[in-house]
Amino acid sequence: MKEELKVYNNNPPPLDRNGRSHKGHLIKVSGEGELAVQPDSASVNLGIITEDKQLITAQQQNSAEATKVIDSLIALGIPKDHIQTFDYRIESEYDFDQGKQIFRGYKITHILKVIIDDLSIIGNVVDTAVQNGVNYVSNVQFTAKNKDLFYQQALVLAVNNATEKAKTIASTINVSLIPTPILIVEGGSTVQPVFNQSATFVKGIASTPLEPGQIKVRADVIADFKFTPSH
Fold first, then answer.
1. Any idea which fold 3-38+146-194+209-229 has?
2. Do 208 and 131 meet the contact criterion of CB atoms below 8 Å apart?
3. R_g of the chain, CA atoms, integer Å
4. Cβ contacts of residue 10 below 8 Å, gap of 6+?
5. All structural domains of the chain with their residue ranges
6. 81 secondary structure, DSSP code
7. Among the listed residues 139, 120, 143, the one whose alpha carbon sits nearest the alpha carbon of residue 37
8. CA 36 to CA 76: how far, in whole Å?
9. Are strands 83-97 and 175-177 parallel, antiparallel or unpaired?
């Protein structure tokens, strides 16, 4: 939902030579502000997928693998409260032969969401998890912890951008701009994810390079400015 901020000027609206206000003398512009931010946190989904014809066997194997993965991550220095179950599913698997459905077994999927504060170890986190039983990795995302502060900075840039546009328009049409906007409508923020990948990993692969890159934080506004004709 858009938030609307009305900015009022205590001075009365300008009057023309007949004492009438210039209600129609309005410039409406948009403003954009964008920052490139270095991420300082990441999250990744690590999945343990097991299959067996016996449900109990599949569950026991999955539970043992998940415990092994969690212990290995804690040994790397990941706090336990940064490791949480994101999804847990039990599915029946079937083959089809000449139109007949043949039961193949059960598939257990346990996905852990892991939050990583030290970006230098994210590749090691993935490799260690794979070596200890993870066979599915997805949704690797980098973010900044203080997104609100960066958004406020982008919002300042957006308002300044709108003001400069209004000044340019006023100068071009040869009118006098009242520099304080009478209305500002905040358009909201966007944060572009840096990295998002789903893949199946195999034990024994080379070290996984995961580069954080930069996050784009953007703010948009719509602003109304009054102006007076130049004489």
1. Translation Initiation Factor IF3 (3.30.110)
2. no
3. 28
4. none
5. 3-38+146-194+209-229, 41-143
6. G
7. 143
8. 30
9. unpaired
Cα dihedral 75/51/206/198 (nearest 10): -90
CATH of domain 41-143: 3.30.70.2970
DSSP states of 102-125: EEEEEEEEEEEEEEES-GGGHHHH
Written as six digits, the tokens of 64 are 């043992």
Identify the sign of the CA torsion 141, 147, 150, 152: positive
pLDDT in tens, 23-57: 568 999 999 999 999 898 999 999 999 999 999 99
Higher pLDDT, 196 or 114: 114
Lookup: tokens for 186: 């905040």
Which tokens hold the place of 34?
């964008």
pTM: 0.67
The encoded tokens of residue 55 equal 């449900």
